[in-house]
Amino acid sequence: MKKDTETALKWIVNILKEHSIPFQIGGGFAARMYGVERELADIDIAVPTDRLNELLLEVKDYITYDLRHYLDEKWDCTGMTINYEGQEIDFVGAQGKKIFDEINKKWITLENDFSNNEYKEIYGLTIPLMPKEKLITYKSILKRDVDLLDLEGLRK
């Protein structure tokens, strides 16, 4: 199936607004909104951790990774992944989220603050983004190949 990012974004933003769930888009999608040019993998959306379960009824048919706590070498967070119209969408709880700082060998709490969103227009929608400086900070800590690519573009 061909990926339809526009349809997927409009669909999920509509659901979030219907439920009055605050959200903030981060990751590669936000980097692209700030001018980074690269292929989009997924749409990363942070919502209040205690409101993630409110999405389940609406997205249940599209879940590819169940809503639960995840812990791996880079992330310690609660979230889930869905796939709508071929576009992967990752939800993460904004509170209690940690990323691993490889240089200092410690976990860093990196919570989303919905009061300082930046807003950009795309597909006729005004969407809340993680502020550029916060995006740079978290990508500087994660340092995956894709983060390094994004950092290069974000710093131009």
Helix and strand arrangement:
Elements: H1 5-18, E1 24-26, H2 27-33, E2 42-47, H3 56-59, E3 63-71, E4 75-84, E5 87-93, E6 98-101, E7 106-109, E8 118-122, E9 125-129, H4 132-142, H5 145-154
Parallel strand pairs: 2-5
Antiparallel strand pairs: 1-2, 3-4, 4-5, 4-6, 6-7, 8-9
Helix pairs in contact: 4-5
Give the CA-based shape.
globular
Q: What do we call the CATH topology?
A: Beta Polymerase, domain 2
Count of alpha/pi helices: 5
Overall structural class, as computed from helix and strand content, comes to alpha+beta
Sheet with the most strands?
A: 7 strands, mixed
Number of strands: 9
Rg value? 15 Å
Number of domains: 1
Pattern of helices and strands: HEHEHEEEEEEEHH
Mean pLDDT comes to: 95
Molecular structure report:
The protein has 156 residues and is an alpha+beta fold. The protein has helices at 5-18, 27-33, 56-59, 132-142, 145-154, and strands at 24-26, 42-47, 63-71, 75-84, 87-93, 98-101, 106-109, 118-122, 125-129. The mean pLDDT is 95. It contains five helices and nine strands; from the N terminus they run H-E-H-E-H-E-E-E-E-E-E-E-H-H. Helix 4 runs antiparallel to helix 5 (145-154). 29% of the residues lie in helices and 34% in strands. The strands form two sheets. Strands 1, 2, 3, 4, 5, 6 and 7 form a seven-stranded mixed sheet that branches. The chain has a two-stranded antiparallel ribbon with strand order 8-9. The chain has one domain: Beta Polymerase, domain 2 (2-Layer Sandwich).
